[in-house]
Fold these 2 entries.
Entry 1:
Amino acid sequence: MREPNTTVQSPANGSVAAAVLSCGFGCFLLGVLAVAADGSKGLAAALNFYTPAGPLSGVTTVMIALWLACWAVLAIRWKSKHIAFAKVSATAFVFLALGLLLTFPPFGDLFLGR
Amino acid sequence: MELTHRELVTAIHGMLFGGFFLMALFGGFVLLLELSDSGMCGEASARPASRWQTVYLIAMAALGWAAVLSGAYIIYPWYRAVAPAGADPTLYPKFLLTAHPATAGWHNFGMEWKEHVAWIAPMAATMVGWVLIKHRAAWNASCQVRNAVLGFAAAAFLAAAIAGGWGAMINKKAPVQGGRTYQLMGSAK
């Protein structure tokens, strides 16, 4: 079995921080867009990119585009940098939790005052 | 024994892409636990991902994207199509479910939840795979990185399980069906 064991000095974590934070942000965006499209007929119509699938097509397309854009921007800015990972990780998990909550219909309805 | 075109495609979406994605996520989570346990945090080793791990993680993410994309752009349009007057309601699952208060919750709660939460899974799986393949040194060096990636992998599994579970139950209550019929075994009588 191959066992390369090249010792390196504490590697930069900027790229990983960018991936983790943008993933959490993407989850949050998904929740926000899902609730917003549910609460606004105008936004739902604007997000109706593919009529057979309805606003879901726009919600997910916009979410994916913004997630990848956020990831790319952060990855470029944080490349080769040492980031305070605990703060980034905590922020990402808050985003993730909010995203999971907002995609839960009773919570979304509560948010929309239904 | 027959299967309609829509039933076949729905089976591919749910049982092939979705089912294998869920199993791959579970396997991936076990892999992450194994890798977490294999060395002390902060060992700062540049040991890379093995070839089979790379293939596995890419396949895991690809299955997730195949599941959500086929679901949103092929199955969901069949599910939510508006039934014309006088049409057979069993060919329009959303219409069939929402027509009765006793079954409306399968759409208003189940499908509304499933159609959105599912997307968290491939996104998180992609991030997990990316970190494990491209940034193994950072994974090896930091417990914080390991914990964050493990947390997102668990969230991916949870989201995929919710989506898969509701999908299976909704398809049981109001199956997506119709289109060309394939004869699988025996002859039609």
Entry 2:
Amino acid sequence: MFDRIWRIVIKEFIELKRDKWARFRLIVPPLVQMLVFGYAATFEVYHVSTVVLDRDQTQESRELLSRFTFSDRFRVVETASTDAEVARAIDRSDAAVALVIHPGFANLLRKGQTAPLQVIVDGTNSNTALIALGYVDLIAGQYSADYAADLVRRGLAGANAKPVVVNLETRPWYNPDLNGRWFFVPGVVGTLTLVLIVSLTASAIVREREVGTLEQLMVSPLRPVELILGKTVPFFLIGLAEVALVAGFGMAWFRVPFFGNPIILLLGTVLFLLSTLGLGILISTVCKTQQQAFASNFFVLNPMFTLSGFSFPISSMPNVLQWLTYLDPLRYYLVVIRGTFVKGVGLDALWPDMLGMAALGTGLLGLSILRFRKSLD
Amino acid sequence: MKLVRLKAMAVKETLQVWRDPFSLLIALLMPLMQMLLLGYGVSLDIKHLPVCVYDREASQDSQDLLKRFQASEYFEIVQVADNYTEITTSLDRGRCVLAIVIPPDFTERLNDSGASTVQAIVDATDTNTANIAMGYAQAVVGGFSTDAQISATDAQGRPLQFIQPVDVESRVWFNEDLSSRNFIIPGIIALIMALVGAQLTSLTISREWERGTMELLVSTPVSPMEVMLGKLAPYFLIGLLDAAFCLVFGVFWFDVPFRGDVATLFLATSLFLVVVLGIGYLVSVKIKSQVGAAQMGLLLTLLPTTLLSGYAFPIDQMPPLVQGVTYLVFARYYVTALKALFLKGSGIVDLAPELLAMVAYAAVVAFLAARAFRKNLD
């Protein structure tokens, strides 16, 4: 039995070796995608283009604005002199944030009263706007606290005055610098593996059917289980190699650390590959032509990608979609791969996801084998 | 060029699309699926983020602060921990994303020196969520801070004077609720156009090769120019129909504001379709296998539209070199125009640079595509 499976495996590899296009597809697009994702996929907010309008022109107003100039979160691109200029800068997207200080700002401050700092944000990109607003609050709050402390110290603020009360000390764990690449690079490894292995497996079987060589295999002494094992083992091995290649490249190029245990990642990858192989075979049993297989890949893989939590948090989705994510093997694998890369956690934390993948993998593989045997008759 | 032959070509292609379930699926079902999936699934807004709290003081003040976290729609307290180990376990297992620790001397310090510190530990695996969560936590604590100041009294029972020198008055323009749906949906139109356009056309010539009908096509009097225009016309119309569908669906189903004018939207969409269809056609002429052509078509249109157009990931945050590359990505101009049309209500004059860039792009692609197909069988 093993001998016959082994022969099919060898046949598949020979086919791959002779197919230049397939070899190219295995190596170049994944690496290119890793590069593009690594550089382009970022939600970080630095150097937000800012227009300032200082109509007070006092030491206080300049001091406050200079704190924005010296922060790496904002970059002052324009100093306006009228409200209309501010509006035009935002309208034309020359600036995403406008800081406006009205006349009398310093006078109010010196009297111990509250003076407004007017902020206008272009909300078109809601995410950048939200984060930028947070930084405006932080910088203005810091200035405010310093100014209040100064007033109190110099006894200018009245006997009962007290400055800011409660500080929040934030500690980002696992990724202290909030480096977005640590989040995206492991995610890309999972996504690419899903897309590649499912479409390879599906098209390999559909191709045999389309070309008509599946009938030849059927008249050979191979049993269906042997045929299916022989057909999937190569893609299983390719999947493992692909994960190693893409993950290694991502780690080396983008300096993403690996804090966890490689054995656990290997275990997770094996379980994940079961689902991808099952899915590939399942698609191949439904489709008669490669073109159909390609289209169904798309209809299956695209939702999986969107629902996996790759870039958009699952907890923000509506409930129905959240339930659907439990049927998505990529959802579990992303937890495992990010858990091992960034969090450095072990099986005690990852067992539910391993279990989820094992269940989905066995289910999909079992179903696909049943359907495959039927489709041979 | 004869109009009769052009029309015959277009009719043939339309029939072919109509009779091919695969093409119909892509032309009709794909936009609906994408719109629903991305419209509902793609959200960067944070709601009910799981929070773990460890109140080491358990006083009135500390409970008051934690109640504010519970009351906020952004957070949901899912666990009350009794020690640091529980917090670590909870964060490790992803049961909570944020942990709030209140020190045992919280109230004491508040009364003594007027300043106290609360610790927020956040799971930064998802950096964006972590960033937003820290901002909201900051706001909750800030609110507590302000109110605590107002209600505090000194030793003689006189109310303390509340000083807060600078108050940030923020106003958000164009997307007043900062809803990420308003930010994502206009870009989805570009995604769907790229997908539908490239997918359908990338097969148009390779299909003739694979089915062996190329010989027939070559033997007819139809000219290469007529082949191109006749083949692309139906897809162009499908693209416009899909764009209209997306516009109506986005505005009426997802309540995304549309503040610009529809004519400019369709002008921009037509230009974008010319580019996408042209690329799909070029790929189809060059790559003779249908699957290869479909994949190449996707790689050339969908990947740049998803990642390098500013549809979800802001271009100004990319490294300078990559920012330079985005000027070559035609989807960049279309996505900019879409967002400006939907949210800013920009007119044709404001969008002149983007439209001109797209005209240039469309001209180049159309020129290349017109020269690509030759009537020979090698």
